[in-house]
Amino acid sequence: MSEQMLVKKRYHSRGITVLEMFMTMILVAIIFGITQALLARTIDSWWKVNANADAQQQLYKAQAFLERDLANAAFETETGRETFGIDKASSLTELNSLSGSDSDVLWFLSAVDPLSGDFQRHPTTGEPLWQRNIIYYAVTPHNVSSFGYSAGGTDVDGYESACPYKVLIRKEVDAYDPTLPGDPSTIEPLIDDLTGFIDRPDGYDTSTMSKHGGSVRPISGNIITFRATQDNQLGGITIDLRATAIDRAKREAGGIGTRDLASNPATQQLQITIFPPNRQGTGTTTPP
Amino acid sequence: MAAILILSIIAVTTAALSSDQKAEMRQIALAVATSELNRFAKQVALAGSSARSSFWTATDSGTPEVYAGPGTIDTIKTSNTDFALTYYFQTVQNASGSGTLGDGQPENRLRKVDLIVQWWGGEQGKPGYGKLSVQATRLIRESDLREPF
Fold first, then answer.
1. Of A31, A63, A234, the CB nearest to B39
2. In chain A, how many domains are there?
């Protein structure tokens, strides 16, 4: 082997210097740093998007139920002929378990027979033959601690705005004497006093709730507030329903339990006006 | 090589999440548009209202016209987003192109209303920030007339 080749071999197998090692470490650290930051941001976005999608899902479920139910209702406000009621920031005990009212209560008459699913009409006048009262409200369930919530709640403008574990409840009740489909003498009157009709589920379990000859369904979870207002000019009911992206709110500064979530970016909002299409006509009805 | 692979996966995931977010906002905007068109249709059907007279007397040149008269709303804020609303209307013509549909009877026109809902998506100053929009359409009959409740 020539002298020149030996020198070349020694040159190529001499290892790395401290400076080269140091530079390599810095480069690797920079790459890892950037990767870690991007990964953290991606994970954060993933949580955010998933939680938002979940909250929206809850709102869409509620929208579908409300639109379907109110399509079988009427907007009548004449005294003694009312077909719906709204109890703003309800003061009912069951809706005031934390600070402020859990929600409004919206209730209205529906002409749909729950067994057949048919819209019932008066055999001679063709007017809707009311079959059931349908009640919507959002409520903090019993055992809310099972969701990991232990705070006392926050009252904002009379509404509880810190607990996002409220459940939107839909009740379909035969409120007074039994109503028979097709029989005008048993027409369902609008509930005049909600006492006894509003109660709370145990978590999402509604089996112990009062049914009054009808049914109870938890429609949506993650609800922070449910509000309803009537538009007397156009004959519509405006719904303001908000669901919180809980996993997102938990990861933000302040967490859950001590701050107003009703107007927080982690809360999704559904604001729609629904126009009940039916009229009761001018005939007499049984007042409540 | 591994770093390039990880960064590529992150980039793809971030892009997918960003598109998910846009899709969510589109759903909200569509709900806003549908609800608002329902409200607007009720408003212009209200007998004796300024919204009704203004809408049905607005001049139609044959192409979609912006309408910003009584009964319209400029912005709606929901889900912490400001949605800007623009209404366009056009009277529906006969298929033959001569005259408007239903012009054989008085107060029997049909107008197509397009509602454009626009909002700023993404975070200001960050990639993906921009103006987004959805459109909803509804036909409104002049013969729809309701007495006030």
1. A234
2. 1
Residue A194 clears pLDDT 70, i.e. is over it: yes
Say what the pLDDT of residue A230 is: 93
SS3 A278: strand
Q: Examine residue A155 and state whether it is found in any structural domain, yes or no.
A: yes
Residue A9 lies in a domain: no
For chain B positions 110-139, those within 8 Å of chain A (CB to CB) are none
Boundaries of every domain in chain B: 2-141
The answer to whether the beta carbons of residues A61 and A220 sit under 8 Å apart is: yes
User: Are A228 and A237 within 8 A, CB to CB?
Assistant: yes
Domain that holds residue A64: 39-274
Question: Does A199 or B19 have the greater pLDDT score?
Answer: A199
Query: Is residue A149 predicted with pLDDT exceeding 70?
Result: yes
H-run or E-run covering A133: strand A132-139
Nearest Cα residue in chain B from A30: B3
What's the burial of A135, exposed, middle or buried (CB within 10 Å: 0-12/13-18/19+)?
buried
Entry pTM? 0.84
Per-residue pLDDT band for A2 (boundaries 50, 70, 90) equals: low
A233: nearest CB among B35, B76, B148 = B148
Identity of the residue in A42, A48, A235 whose CB atom sits nearest the CB atom of B10: A42
Q: Is the pLDDT of residue A17 over 80?
A: yes
Q: Which pLDDT score, from 0 to 100, does residue A285 have?
A: 43
Domain presence at residue A14: no
Radius of gyration from C-alpha coordinates of chain A: 30
- Please tell me whether residue B69 adopts helix, strand or coil conformation: coil
In A, minimum Cα distance to B20 occurs at: A49
